[in-house]
Design goal:
Blueprint: H1 2-31, E1 49-51, E2 57-59, H2 60-67, E3 71-76, H3 80-90, E4 100-105, H4 110-113, E5 123-125, H5 128-135, E6 142-146, E7 152-157
Length: 168
């Protein structure tokens, strides 16, 4: 009876290990997908006109250079996933978010949605057509990591679960 018990426990343990490995492989395969959206890695952002936090028109590249932005998060006003990402970022210390800008598309009511966030001064507004046609993104939330000259180093879709891996 004792040997049977040990065999059963060993089999259950092996099944659990195999299930863990399968889950890990599935997770890794989802994370390493090639992202076809957005400007290609190694290219620079187009110099579209955006509105900064004080409602001034500025070229996007000038904003990246002058503010030393290394992360651009694209959000849509009407995107529930974007709201979840913003909610997650709200609990992160502001000093970790200083080189990040949020490029919002949609209506101007985005400012009212993030008015109580510590990063409200990091908001840029863009036309949806510019984001779709020039930045080549039509799904949100989307993140670009870049050099301060505007060259893309990485990109991808984000969620409230994955955003923290992009924060320096």
């Amino acid at each position: 009876m004792n040997a049977e018990y040990q065999i059963i426990v060993s089999l259950i343990f092996m099944i659990l290990v195999i299930l863990f490995i399968i889950i890990l492989v599935i997770h890794k395969s989802k994370v390493s997908k090639v992202i076809n959206q957005g400007i290609k890695i190694g290219e620079k952002f187009p110099n579209i006109i955006v509105y900064n936090s004080i409602n001034q028109k500025v070229p996007l590249l000038k904003e990246i250079y002058s503010q030393k932005i290394d992360t651009l998060i694209l959000i849509d006003v009407n995107c529930s996933q974007c709201e979840k990402v913003l909610k997650t970022l709200k609990i992160i210390k502001p000093e970790y978010l200083k080189n990040i800008r949020f490029l919002a598309v949609g209506s101007e009511d985005i400012t009212s949605k993030i008015s109580n966030h510590s990063f409200q001064n990091q908001l840029l507004l863009a036309q949806m057509e510019d984001v779709i046609n020039q930045i080549k993104v039509n799904g949100f939330p989307f993140i670009f990591k870049n050099n301060i000259d505007g060259t893309i180093t990485s990109k991808g879709y984000i969620s409230e679960d994955t955003i923290t891996k992009y924060i320096n």
